[in-house]
Structures are given as C-alpha cells and as structure tokens.
User: What shape does this take?
Amino acid sequence: MSYVEPWGIIEENKESAYLRLFPFSLTGKAKIWLQSQPNQSLTSWEDVERNFLTRFFPPSKYLVAKYAIAIFSQTTDEPLCEAWERFKSLLRKCPNHGFDILAQLNMFCNGLRPQEKMLLDASIGGSMMTKSAEEVMEIIEAITANAIKHIITKVYLQKKKGILKLDIQSAILNKLIPQQMEGLKKQMTKM
Assistant: This one.
C-alpha cells in the first residue's frame, strides 16, 4: 500500500517529482553544473543529492560550516534578534549539518550572552529544558520578531538618507520649544 501525503503525491512518485522539479530550482553555477552532467548519469534523487552536495558542499567546506554552527556565540553588541538570524543563516549555509532541532537550540542558547539566556528563560517561564524544542523555537521566533520591529522603528526614527532624524524625546522637545518661543513672543508683543 502506498503512503499518500496531504498534498496528494504518492510516495513512489515523490522521487520522480523531485527529479522533474529540481532543475527549475537552480540558477547560476548550479544550473550550469546540472546541464554539464552526462545524460542518464543522475537517475535517482539519491544520485542528484550526493553529486550536488559533493560539488557545492565538499567535505572541507562542510566541516568549516558545521564547526561554525557548533561554536556559535553572540557578539558583544549583537542584539538577540540579529544573533538568531545569523545562527539560522549558518544553518542554511550547511544544509546537511545533521544537527537535530534540540541540538541546534542548545548550540544557539549556549552561545548567547548570560543576560540573553536569562531573557529566554524568563520568557519561557523557567528553564529552556522544561519545554519542548518546538515551544522554545516559537518563543525565540516571537521574541526576535518583536525585537526586529523595534530595531527597524528605532533606525527609522534616528536615520533617514540625507536627513538627520531625531529620537522621540528630541522630536518632542523640538516641537515644544518653538511652541513655547512663539508663546513668549506673543506675550512680549502684548507688553
């Protein structure tokens, strides 16, 4: 009996679907590489995967990328949201890293500064170890999404190309001072 996935692809046809769709996912050097392969040399998805990874992720590159994931650490001035994005980028650069979700979370959390670890633990309501990996991922994603919005707003308020933008306090003061000056001018003219 064939296993039918929710989107209707029968398991046996899945490999042929991958083989047919794979060329459309490539650009640049990867597309040139695929076109340079001899006819009938890539007859199974396993062949394609093995040859593609060998060409674009040789063992030396793989080991360097995997090591970068394993020794991840947050930099001194790096916000949690940027550290999370950088960590996910490291994972994308090494698609065959082999780390399960729990190992990934442990590497990320172990690489955080102590105050960021405390923030995560407080957000989780205790220790990260008391929650499932999926719950921890959801919390990290929620915290970082909110932080990214805050950083974007802060940057927008502080900088705009060619124009000096003020933070909220300075903007309020710059609006109040001219109003107060105008009020003083009116009082002076009345005298």
Remarks:
- The longest strand covers residues 159-160.
- The chain has two domains: 1-56, 58-165.
- The two ends are 98 Å apart (CA to CA).
